[in-house]
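Chain X:
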Amino acid sequence: MSTTDPFLLYTQRGPVVTLTLNSPATRNVLTGNTAAAEFADACARINADASVRAVILTGAGPAFSAGGDLKDMQTMFGMSPAELREWYRRGVQRLALAVYQLEVPAICAVNGPAIGAGCDLTTMCDIRIASERATFAESFVKVGLIPGDGGAWLLPRAVGRSMAAELSFTGRSIDAAEALRIGLVSRVVPPERLLPEAEALADEIAKNPGAALRLAKKLLREGERLDFPSLLEMSAGLQALAHKTPQHVEAVNAFVEKRKPVFGD
């Protein structure tokens, strides 16, 4: 990747968008570059495109993402606390919000090490598939830091409070098999099968109506913070919207007429 190449490659195959971290020479670090701005732009583009029904996020080269650029952090020694706070808000936190607020299902295809903010980036997605070569580490404590990208909120929701605490307090690395055991990923596949598996899953998801997928994801996201009665109230409102979509009408008619439904955007 040269200084003029994009950090994030955006490719679309029908209703599926693939976002590829494209700085293998830096192990796809997420700071000290244009990653935050490019993620914000790409996610806004996806959310505005009704034809998109699923997203795959992966990395180029042997690593998924090494997280923050430690060499670049040397330039931060002279920054004031107020300046550092804004650096996080405009940088990796902007990236985190963009990915977390994607309106369509997001599959993370973890091709290699996912370290620090790279590990947290995987948890911003809905589904994680790992190559046998993938490793994960919530390693901030190893360099005297905390997860400034929201990992303290994201990781417990992926693996539970006790395991999130263990990973955060030790900073240790786990392999793909252990990630599967603790529920951080839903499947582990040979490296050559990683993208085909992710694409097959994205295609299976994308066969469903786009409006229903976006409403379902919205409900899952809101369910992370609402109590049950509030979630039921939101479910009723969103379900009322779903009943009025052309895709729902087509699905019901197709079932009655014993044919396959044809969904538009």
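Chain Y:
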Amino acid sequence: MSVLQRFEKRLEGLVEGAFAKVFKGVVHPVEILNAMQREAEAHKAILAGGRTLVPNRYVIDLSPYDHSRLAPYAAALAQELAQSQAEFIGEQGWTVYGDVIVEIERGEGLDTGMFRVTAEVYTGAAEPAPPPPAYDPGAGYGPYGPQHGGYGPPAGGPGRNARLVSSDGRTYPLQVGSTVIGRGDQANLRLPDVGISRRHARLDFDGGQVVITDLGSTNGTSVNGQRISAVALNPGDMIQIGTTTLTFRVDG
């Protein structure tokens, strides 16, 4: 089933059988989704490593008549449009910053049946990540894979710097404390990968070792090919989140 077919099916449930009646004589949501897909195609940008970045924020201006008719469904419709657009972007193998956002506005001067789609790459205002839960090695960080031998030897230490290196060569130094990886505004390390959750995983670095914890992400976190809940990292470990691979390195 295509993205458009799934979208139409969800719309039928959204308006509880009144699908034809609600959308008769007004702009059809499938036309909006088609326009959003075209906007994504038209605004592609190639990133380092060959990845394709597309807009994640879409503002839909409807005519005053269409806007008033669809007002009772605007919030739910925006959510369905965002979900379907995210599915489309994922199927194309494209990437976005943060979540796909759709906003439905009243467009003065637009005739009935007319609409306008504005697309942009929206990074949002940087916000500090919420503090992590209290550290409890007996409760929240195990069990660890046997290949790691529990916490293992310290990953960092005096004169050493821990960092993550992506497959395209980008380096992300780790600071002492907690670093949240994700796509959302609350992530300290934001990655444009639709397979990554808004708050996907957390790295806790005490200056001597780094522990990675999955934050209940949709697609999970793997270290060296094994899905983990939390584990201490050793130099050379390969972290997989979404379609992104990060190698843990220690300098010094």
